[in-house]
Write a structure and sequence with these properties.
The protein is an all-alpha fold and about 550 residues long. The chain contains 25 helices and no strands.
């Protein structure tokens, strides 16, 4: 029996979005995509420079233990934690600003939150600097270069303060519908790291990269300040939204109460703890294991990063729709995000699985990075790729959960359950498979979390059609398998890594597109409409 595909056009009863807002959203998504890609490419250049200068040994393992600090801080303070709290809070404040005169609720929100946040961030950074030896002992017991790891941790601990301010600025700007400066932060960050690494790497060793993290954090704040100042100096015009409920001017600051913040913090920390578990399990393995895991993860997650760039733009749209009571618009947006993000990540994962050795060889195999490092990293990367769809679904669905601006513990509980599965599976797999076993445990845990979040999303205000979304994603998985086979076949036509990667990637795109179209995935049905049908804005 063939599953019925939902209508390609919104139901007549649904209120259409203003065409201008649609064009602005597309423009914001394009600019975010370009800058996200630029930041990601600079991240690859950073990793290439690091691998070329230092290779994969005990010193790089020591730095990567310290690298855990900015990784956790980025998740908690930039990408997930603060964003999940502040974007809905600013959305509520902006809706209130547009509905009634009086004191500006946006400025009231800033006055109620920013000074306290800065004080907490400064205290957290100071504590982490003082406790660096204990942090290293907990993260990587038995690590040979403990003193070097402590020095690097103290340098990277400064990012707790800078990343917190970065996350606050990004959330405020995105809440105001400004995406250019927030999308530029990782460009500035990686420029700072690369600059100090190349300038001082010979004299300071891996400490230069740690100092680059500190400098990059400062640049992330500086690049957003002008846009933020302009946004706060301007009052938005009244929003043309339905009026199912009123949001008093004082409601926005109260939205940041502990009951709302706590589940977001637990979720973000639980998600990042997967990396801590990996480093903990890999510490006793042969030298370079942590580095192989790191290189593999950074490259394998590129498709996920690109797939979530759309959600960065649509998250404030969903939050504002829910703040205005328009649950139907929010539901349609989340379902579309799931399909588009799933398409991007599965196409990318097919290339990662099929051409892992070629990718690592092209990106890293030079200088101190040997053929052995290439083989070990490629093996781990292929296993990591199995969890990319789960990582993407968690990112999309978490934004839809926390956009409601109310206490929700279900995402945190789902993440904790997935984390427990990762820890148990990793402990069992490491003695047998080593580093690839750690990657497999990561893929298992995050996939279980994604399934739990998808199941629960059908019982919320937005009430996603879980069965239909699951069917669409299953079809995309089939298309991804076809793309993987085509990519591997194309890569085998030549022994040179770069041409093999180019040919394989091209065939993967063709195979994925054709298969998804034959399976009637909705977004591909929209893409390949008959050209005789007029576009809606041309009517």
């Amino acid at each position: 029996m063939t599953e019925t595909v939902p209508p390609l056009l919104p139901a007549p009863a649904a209120a259409p979005e203003h065409p201008t807002s649609g064009r602005l959203l597309a423009r914001a998504a394009f600019l975010t995509a370009v800058l996200t890609l630029a930041g990601a490419l600079l991240g690859l250049l950073r990793d290439q420079a690091f691998a070329h200068v230092f290779g994969a040994d005990t010193d790089t393992d020591a730095f990567l233990v310290a690298w855990t600090v900015p990784e956790v801080a980025a998740t908690l303070l930039i990408e997930d934690g603060l964003a999940f709290v502040l974007v809905p809070a600013f959305s509520l404040a902006l809706v209130a600003r547009g509905r009634q005169p009086g004191p500006d609720p946006v400025r009231a929100l800033v006055a109620a939150t920013l000074p306290r946040l800065m004080l907490a961030l400064a205290a957290g950074a100071a504590v982490l600097i003082a406790a660096a030896p204990a942090v290293v002992a907990v993260l990587a017991p038995g690590l040979p270069a403990t003193g070097l790891a402590v020095d690097c941790t103290r340098l990277t601990a400064t990012c707790v303060f800078s990343f917190g301010l970065t996350g606050y600025c990004s959330a405020a700007l995105r809440g105001h519908g400004r995406f250019l400066a927030p999308a530029s932060i990782y460009v500035a960050y990686n420029v700072g790291i690369i600059g100090l690494l190349l300038l001082l790497g010979g004299a300071w060793g891996v400490r230069a990269a740690a100092a680059g993290v500190a400098l990059g954090g400062v640049l992330m704040v500086v690049i957003q300040v002008p846009a933020l100042w302009r946004s706060w100096r301007q009052r938005e015009a009244a929003l043309a939204v339905p009026e199912p409920r009123r949001a008093p001017a004082g409601q926005a600051p109260r939205a940041l109460r502990l009951a709302l913040v706590a589940p977001v913090v637990v979720f973000a920390l639980s998600r990042q703890t997967q990396v801590l578990i990996e480093r903990f399990l890999a510490a006793p393995l042969p030298a370079g294991a942590i580095s192989h895991l790191n290189y593999a993860q950074k490259v394998a997650q590129m498709p996920m990063v690109l797939s979530l760039m759309l959600c960065t733009v649509t998250f404030p749209v969903i939050a504002r729709a829910l703040a205005a009571g328009d649950t139907e618009r929010a539901r349609r947006r989340v379902e579309s995000d799931l399909i588009v993000a799933g398409t991007i990540v599965l196409l990318g994962a097919s290339v990662v699985v099929a051409c892992a050795p070629e990718i690592i060889q092209v990106l890293f195999q030079r200088g101190a990075f040997t053929l052995h490092d290439t083989d070990a990293t490629a093996d781990v990367m292929r296993v990591y790729a199995l969890g990319l769809l789960g990582q993407t679904l968690v990112g999309v669905l978490a934004r839809s959960y926390f956009s409601e601006a109310r206490p929700l513990w279900y995402p945190a509980c789902a993440m904790l359950a997935g984390l427990a599965a990762t820890a148990v599976a990793g402990a069992l797999a490491v003695p047998v498979w080593g580093a690839p076993g750690i990657a497999a445990a990561n893929a298992l845990g995050i996939t279980l979390t994604a399934l739990a979040l998808l199941w629960g999303s059908g019982r919320r205000r937005t009430a996603l059609s879980v069965r239909w979304v699951g069917g669409q994603l299953a079809r995309l998985v089939v298309a991804g398998c076809a793309a993987t086979a085509a990519c591997r076949w194309g890569a085998g036509l030549t022994s040179s890594p770069l041409p093999a990667l180019i040919v394989g990637s091209a065939l993967a795109v063709v195979a994925f597109t054709v298969t998804a179209r034959l399976l009637r995935v909705r977004e591909f049905c929209l893409l390949f409409r008959p050209v005789t049908r007029k576009l809606w804005h041309a009517r």
